[in-house]
Amino acid sequence: MTRKSQHWLAVTGLALAATVALAGCVSTGGAGSSAAVTKDAAGPLVLQSRFTGAEKSGLEAVIKAFDKKGEGKVQLNSLPTTTFDTQLPSYLTSKNPPDVYTWYAGQATRDFADQGLLLNLSDVWKKSLGNYSSALKTLSSTSSGEQVFVPSDYYWWGVYYSKSEFKKLGITPPKTWNDFLTDSAKIKAQGVTPITMGLSDNSWLAAAWFDYLDLRINGAKYHLALLAGKHSYDSAPVRKVFAAMKQILPDLSPSILGTSYNQSISDLSTGNAAMYLAGAFIETAVPTAERKDLGFFQFPIIDPSVPVSEEAPTDGFMVSAKTTRPTLAKEFLEFAASAKGQSLLLNGEDGISLAVNPSATQTMDALSTQGKNMLQSASQVTQFFNRDAGDAQQTPADTALTQFIAEPNNLDAILKAWQASAVKLRAGS
Amino acid sequence: MTASHIPVAATRPWGRVRRGQSRKRVFGTVGFHLSSSVISLLWFAPILLVVVTSFRSFNDIALNGISSLPHSFTFATYAQAWKLGGLAQALTNSMIVTIPTVLLSLFLAAAAAFGLSRYRIPFRRTILLIMLAGNLLPVQTILIPIARITQDLNIFDTLGALVAVQTAFGLGFYTFVLYGFMRSIPTELQDAASIDGASPVRIFLQIVLPLTRPALSALGALSFTWIFNDLLWSITLIQTSSKLPTTAAVLSLQGEYVSSWSVIAAGTVIAAIPSAIVFFIFQKSFVGGLALGSVK
Questions:
Q1: Which of the given ranges, A412-416, B16-20, B76-80, B281-285, has the highest pLDDT on average?
Q2: Distance from C-alpha of A417 to C-alpha of B239, rounded to nearest angstrom
Q3: pLDDT digits (tens, 9 = 90+) for A295-352
Q4: Distance between CA atoms of residues A209 and A278, nearest Å
Q5: Do A94 and B156 lie within an 8 Å CB cutoff?
Q6: At A295, which CATH number?
Q7: Is the pLDDT confidence value at A166 over 60?
């Protein structure tokens, strides 16, 4: 053995020893933390939220009122939505996770519950949420029937339009799919783009069309089963949905895939585009002067024999299973879900969402009343694609839908690829 | 370039013999300036767009679109960005992370480079290459392991963790650059100091370090912008919103559904100011520093 290689051996050996020693430190450091929690740890309840800027004012009001009650303090961490959504799995699996999180109801929450990451909130439901609808309870429950989610508010989807533009174009809100198509043709004939979407930076908006067409053609039961992976996307019922979607493709602007959300809002506000299938959040995106002119109509009925269901995405809270302050967390959620907490939350939300607590008082404008009535008369409500299917399933759906808009004749390959990636994602989770 | 070319072309009479050559030269000069103006304008256009957007009102952008000509002028966006984004706290956090990191990593890198370049340490090339190899690793692959390690060391969600990680990451590259620079310092200086009885520490602090100043200031400016502009590490290692640095705070101006582009643009302009100041102060050594290590 030469001198050089002896050196090498010594250095390698040292490096290995150091690595082992370090690894040892690390793992012993992690072992001591899993003691059973009997009493709440000291310090404020950490609430990790994805609402920032103007969207957080409602939540801040709730926290302020809760702090005043003297049961404990809440520390609000408002992170950018994009950061929050990608970091949430790391938060939940970290050593000292934040206690409470804002999140989407439905499968998006169940995915975490199935991994044992969420605290059972059944006693909160039993104690304080007795007056909540049973649909909300089902929505907040896992497959084994325990509640892991406390809803805070929900909003509606509709086809938004400008009332003055509709008058100018001679259109009254259509009720059926055939009327909708006729009206679109009429709008197009007058040189206005009938339908717009901000797909270049918000491709998920296309999923609203998929959801609604599927709800109207195949019904909510089929839709939810499809999103849960019980049916294939590469199937006859889904082809029917795409056939309907193909009917509106001529009504989109040719540059729809390159239209930004901001541009689409501006098109709707200036009358370059007539209709926009969107959630209530669109009301705060238009210029303040245009807001009064905004109206929406229920997504048109395609098959009268299919029970009418609507999308009503529900937001709320969930709690980490590893929380060291379970009592305080539950107290806070009970307060947030109470009529008082709900009123504080909703009045900070600028009239674009609805209280889940039936006894909450909320100032309602014409559109929120219309939205609430529409949802109440629905036979069933669904969430939204990513909330019903699981957040990870949104990406293949976006790919399939935008690809279909670009190459509508390539449907076979698109559906095949969609189904394949959906299966692959489910197998991986 | 302007100083040497244009006056020559302008003052020289159009002699018959030299006409072809000087016309060529004029064309060359005009072409050069024209094309570089276009390129610099292209380069500057996005920045200009951000600055212009930052002075427009929400209603203007929502109504006319972001790509239209501005129809409004307001400073309110800056106040809104400052308040909504919590930029005062965020800028403080950024400074708490950036300044110690720059000083610490440059000092450690200089010490390492001094040892490696001035002493016959066995395997010094290997050591240097291993340090550099660390920098070639894509950061994304080690995000989660590092997050876990900081959690187990109980420094997760602290600014100290950011300082530690950023320092560790900078070291390889800074050492490599300083190593090349220090090697070019004549050994005679060091020998003379040794003969006069100076210890290695003294040689390092009083002789080599002052001579390395151009390289240090170039690297300092460079690392300041890198660390100040980092987003990935801060959103991975920090989960308390009041501890987030500027870049993450600007990101949080973007709402889940509705974003006011003018407020985001205003936040971006504010966030760009510290880096810009540092760049202008160190501009000379920054440009000079680009050539560092290219001549051996």
A1: A412-416
A2: 36
A3: 999 999 999 999 999 999 999 999 999 999 999 999 999 999 999 999 999 987 777 8
A4: 9
A5: yes
A6: 3.40.190.10
A7: yes
pLDDT in tens, A363-406: 889 999 999 999 999 999 999 999 999 888 999 999 999 999 99
**Sheet bearing A193-195, strands edge to edge:** A193-195, A273-279, A157-162, A294-297
Task: List the single residue in A with minimal CA-CA distance to B58.
Answer: A287
Q: Does residue A306 sit in the same domain as residue A317?
A: no
Q: What pLDDT is stored for residue B205 in this prediction?
A: 92
Query: Which residue do the tokens 């169940």 mark?
Result: A110
- Decide if pLDDT at B15 tops 70: no
H helix runs in A115-204, sequence order: 122-128, 134-139, 163-169, 177-189
Distance from CA of A332 to the nearest CA of B (A): 19
Length of chain B: 296
Query: Are residue A210 and residue A275 in the same domain, yes or no?
Result: yes
Helix B87-118 to helix B213-229 angle, to the nearest 10 degrees?
A: 140
A64-72: average pLDDT: 93
Interface of B to A at Cβ within 8 Å reads 58-59, 61-68, 84-85, 122-123, 144, 147, 149, 151-154, 156, 235-236, 239-242, 244, 248, 251-258, 260-261, 263
The per-residue pLDDT for range B140-185, each reduced to its tens digit, is: 888 889 999 999 999 999 999 999 999 999 999 999 999 998 998 8
Same domain, A295 and A329: no
* Residue B52, number of CB atoms within 10 A of its CB: 15
Nearest residue of A to residue B253 by CA position? A53
The answer to whether residue A193 sits within a structural domain is: yes
Q: Which one of B61, B152, B254 has the shortest CB-CB distance to A26?
A: B152
pLDDT in tens, A7-18: 554 444 444 444
8 A C-beta contact, residue B160 and residue B237: no
Find out whether A96 and B156 touch, Cβ atoms under 8 Å.
yes
Tell me if chain B has a CB within 8 Å of the CB of A26: yes
Q: What is the pLDDT of residue A196?
A: 96
A382 assigned to some structural domain: no
> Which structural domain range is residue A161 located in?
157-311+390-428
Which residues in A lie closer than 8 A to residue B66 (C-beta atoms)? 260, 262-263
Quote the ipTM score. Answer: 0.77
- The alpha-carbon gap from A135 to the nearest alpha carbon of chain B, in Å, equals 26
Cβ pair A91, A101 in contact under 8 A: yes
Eight-state DSSP code of residue A147: B
Domain match, A205 and A183 both: yes
DSSP B208: I
- Percentage, residues of chain B above pLDDT 70: 90
Q: Of A147, A169, A205, which is closest to residue A385 (Cα–Cα)?
A: A205
Two structure tokens written together for B289: 């520093």
Number of structural domains, chain A? 2
Q: Which residues of B touch A266 (CB under 8 A)?
A: 61-65, 68
